[in-house]
């Protein structure tokens, strides 16, 4: 039996997202060893060298290009390999391409690493999380996706700009699909315990319907806008990966909207994001936040959208 090294991570896929995540993790000092794997070995080697040259300004650690044999004791395996969204392409358009890539990667991971946490980042992240769980045979708590952690950060950022308040004082979630059917859970949103609408009025904003619609649309369209302007998104997701790894490595039991396989009476047989407790065991449970009837219906619709895609992919 291989003993897991809680200070070791592996990143599979070293494109924009994988390399930005490696850089963010190097800066986080959470890990003392990071293995980089890419189908393009030169790319993994180049990224490892480039990031290593920053170590004299950071803290000592090992970051190197490796093989699947090197990941056997990695506590966290982050999968970012896959094609990215092209301008105008939805995340769901990517599905077939990236499922095929997962069919080659996930069995390799499971062959060498028996007890680690599989963190899926490649898109469509909810579909690939479900597929990774099936292909790995890992228990559900140890396979989850970055889900709407990034979308929730975008929501907090836009709200913080709107309200002139620290984004960290805002408690609000995007739930459901990381994609077009995602839902802003407005009914439970608050700023340090003050209901959102009340706080908006304290800051001189009274047109709640328009503001919430514009902000939710802004969140949903962020990726499209960034891809249109600079072809890929990677810094925001890299910080999200760092935050999730922090919760795992430090066993923080933080509540983060990661994508995990749902198992409730209303929603099951699909992975999507709900606030969940994240610690060293991975997802330790989901948190059933209060939703109004409209949000509940939208969540069910989001789950049905994902299920229809899964049905096409898995048949
Ligand atoms: N979850 C999120 O919030 C989020 C945010 C941004 C991007 N993404 C997704 O992350 C993924 C990567 O995006 P990117 O911009 O880094 O793409 P990219 O094209 O820059 O990088 C993908 C990398 O994967 C590698 N790769 C492909 N097949 C492989 C295999 N079988 N084994 C190992 N490596 C393989 C490629 O060589 C490439 O280096 C995409 O699916 C993108 O949609 C997710």
UniProtKB/TrEMBL annotation:
Residues the entry annotates as binding NAD(+): 13-18, 38, 43, 68, 82-83, 98, 104, 121-123, 146
- What is the annotated localization of this protein? Cytoplasm
Please name the pathway: Fermentation; pyruvate fermentation to lactate; (S)-lactate from pyruvate: step 1/1
| Coiled coil listed as a keyword | no
Listed SUPFAM superfamilies: LDH C-terminal domain-like, NAD(P)-binding Rossmann-fold domains
Please name the GO terms that the record assigns under molecular function.
Answer: L-lactate dehydrogenase (NAD+) activity
Where along the chain is substrate bound?
85, 91, 123-126, 151-154, 233
Keyword entries, A-Z: Allosteric enzyme, Cytoplasm, NAD, Oxidoreductase, Phosphoprotein
UniProt GO cellular component terms: cytoplasm
- Catalytic activity annotation: (S)-lactate + NAD(+) = pyruvate + NADH + H(+)
User: InterPro entries from the xrefs?
Assistant: L-lactate/malate_DH (IPR001557), L-lactate_DH (IPR011304), L-lactate_DH_AS (IPR018177), Lactate/malate_DH_C (IPR022383), Lactate/malate_DH_N (IPR001236), Lactate_DH/Glyco_Ohase_4_C (IPR015955), NAD(P)-bd_dom_sf (IPR036291)
Protein role: Catalyzes the conversion of lactate to pyruvate.
Regarding protein family, the annotation reads: Belongs to the LDH/MDH superfamily. LDH family.
Name the UniProt record assigns to this protein: L-lactate dehydrogenase
Give the species this sequence originates from. Ruminococcus difficilis
What's the gene?
ldh
